[in-house]
Amino acid sequence: MNKPVNQRAWWLVLPVVICVAFSAVLPLMTVVNYSVQDIISPTRHVFVGTDWFAQTLQDDELHSALWRQIVYSLSVLAVEIPLGIALALSMPAQGWKASAVLVIVALSLLIPWNVVGTIWQIYGRTDIGLLGYTLSALGFDYSYTGKPLDAWLTVLAMDVWHWTPLVALLGYAGLRSIPDAYYQAARIDGASPFAVFRYIQLPKMRGVLMIAVLLRFMDSFMIYTEPFVLTGGGPGNSTTFLSQYLTTKAVGQFDVGPAAAFSLIYFLIILLLCFILYNWMQRVGTGEPDGSHG
Predict the structure, then answer these.
(1) 283 Cβ partners below 8 Å, 6+ apart?
(2) Using 50, 70 and 90 to split pLDDT, how confident is the model at 269?
(3) Fewest CB atoms within 10 A around its CB: which of 5, 144, 166, 195?
(4) How much is the pLDDT for 293?
């Protein structure tokens, strides 16, 4: 005889459902509503269907910002993931040194995003900033406010400094989960340090690295505060990414309809790219080590 199912557990889930509805579903539906209307005045709305979507997809500035954003996000991953893995491998495994290094590595993650932009704004100045002054003293004509390449590289360096510790901490957590038996088997087999990394450490870090890649990709694809404070999107449009383009549409020009349409397109782009990236990582991922590799 089947026992009756206790449905009272659903009451525990209800607060979460309500919070998600107010924080995600309702705002999303509001954006969808705005994306199909022309807001002429607070009391007058005209239904325009998919006109704003068609207009947004034909915007050349949007296309430029999209490619600039993709190149930037891929550059962030190409630098931060290997650097974070290297940092995690070099961190002490135990003792007071491990605790001290963990605290030091995590310091940059505690700094608010707008403060990070301000720090690098001062850091890159050629008169009082250490980076700008040093490059100028070495003979480089460096100017993150006047040269697009310098601005782009400075924003990239700022992101690497700010977020590489997150990758390192996730990788460190994966390394600490590896049982000593794997290392003992590798020593018995005479495995080289590279073989230990390839067949033991890297497979064990696969799960946390996948999380790190997805988190960093999504966050870098939505970056706004740091480059806005540092460069304001300039010089020209060299550091104007998608989020800044959207803000200019919604706040600066108050084009609510096109901005709402672009928000939905932006959301779908992030979902699509994360889906592609996740499936690619799943296909190229290695299996669990069996301790038999030399």
Answers:
(1) none
(2) confident
(3) 5
(4) 44
